[in-house]
Amino acid sequence: MARRKLLMGNWKMNKTSAEAKEFAIAAKPLAQLAKANKIDLGVAPTYLSLQVTRAKAAKSMIVAAQNCHYKESGAYTGEVSIPMLKEMKINWVILGHSERRAYDNETSEKCNLKIKALLANDMTPLYCVGETLEEFEAGKTKEVVGEQIRKGLEGLSEEDGKKLVIAYEPVWSIGTGKNASTEIAQDVCNFIRKVLKECVGKSASKIRILYGGSVKPENIKAYLSCPDVDGALVGGASLKIDSYTKLLEEII
Ligand code: 13P
Predict the structure, then answer these.
(1) Which residues touch 2 (CB under 8 Å, ≥6 apart)?
(2) Backbone phi, then psi, for 216, in 5-degree steps?
(3) Given 97, 99, 106, 131, which residue is catalytic?
(4) What does the DSSP 8-state code read for residue 65?
(5) What pTM value is reported for the model?
(6) Cβ(12)–Cβ(5) below 8 Å
(7) Cβ distance 4 to 39 under 8 Å?
(8) 136 bridge partner residues
(9) pLDDT reported for residue 1
(10) Percent helix, strand and coil across the chain, each rounded to 5?
């Protein structure tokens, strides 16, 4: 069965709650359009805007958190737990984003604990992997990405695999306007699928792999035409409703 396309906006540390609310309302017709075309559509606001975004967005719109803690509660100042997200009807969480790996000591091992906790709660982890410019130039992309996948998914079952989503985001292409070629995107996403097969067996063929890094309305279609790229994780171009609309229209 074909994998359903997924367009996910990662808002990072952008938008106040009022701005998130405005976007969620404006995106309502888009959610209908996406649904009618069998495309999954989502956004990942900051923790503070999750509630208002969930309340105002169309039901079919995915509203994801950008992180979570793996413990249910406790002395972890500044953290947010999975039960807290669940209470707000948030069922998706982005993990291992390169910005969190770089600035917040988010390791693949930590992501593994979070992925397991999310799966135990019947939630969807969107696990990000990707190499830095230095690693890319040293020809280490597959080594790095392979290790991130193997460590992040350690101990997962074939059944667990069915609930996963992966994003490949080369760090050197995030927010830089330097795009990975479609050949690179396909080659790495195809490699990721092979590693996924090692990790979770047959369900690897069902896992959606998104490409991320300077995705724009002008290039999204080319990425999605790659056989192993099932969608996009978009930062900058997901912030304005006009360009978010164009991103969707391009892949219908
Ligand atoms: P940009 O689309 O702004 O390059 O960001 C990509 C990204 O990091 C999405 O998670």
Answers:
(1) none
(2) -135, 165
(3) 97
(4) E
(5) 0.98
(6) no
(7) yes
(8) none
(9) 62
(10) 50, 15, 35
Alpha carbon distance 105, 38 (integer Å): 37
Residue reference for tokens 């219908």 = 252
Task: Specify the ligand 1 atom closest to the Cα of 98.
Answer: 8
Mean pLDDT of the chain: 97
Distance 10 CA to ligand 1 centre (A): 7
Work out which ligand 1 atom sits closest to the CA atom of 216. Answer: 2
Tell me which amino acid residue 115 is: I
Counting from 1 in the atom list of ligand 1, the atom nearest the Cα of 12 is 10
Please tell me the distance from the alpha carbon of residue 220 to that of residue 232, in angstroms, as a whole number: 7
Average pLDDT over residues 208-220: 97
pLDDT digit string, tens, across residues 160-181: 999 999 999 999 999 888 899 9
Count of CB atoms within 10 A of residue 189's CB? 22
Taking alpha carbons only, the member of 151, 192, 150, 155 closest to residue 170 is 192
CA distance 34 to 248: 7
Indicate if ligand 1 lies below 6 Å from the C-beta of 174: yes
Please, which contacts does 205-209 make with residues 24 or more away whose CB atoms are closer than 8 Å? 206/1, 206/3, 206/161, 206/162, 207/3, 207/161, 207/162, 207/164, 207/165, 207/166, 208/3, 208/4, 208/6, 208/165, 208/166, 209/165, 209/166, 209/167, 209/168
Average pLDDT for 142-156:
98
236 touches ligand 1 (CB under 6 Å): yes
Q: How far apart are CA 189 and CA 151, in angstroms?
A: 17
User: What separation in Å is there between the alpha carbon of 74 and the centre of ligand 1?
Assistant: 32
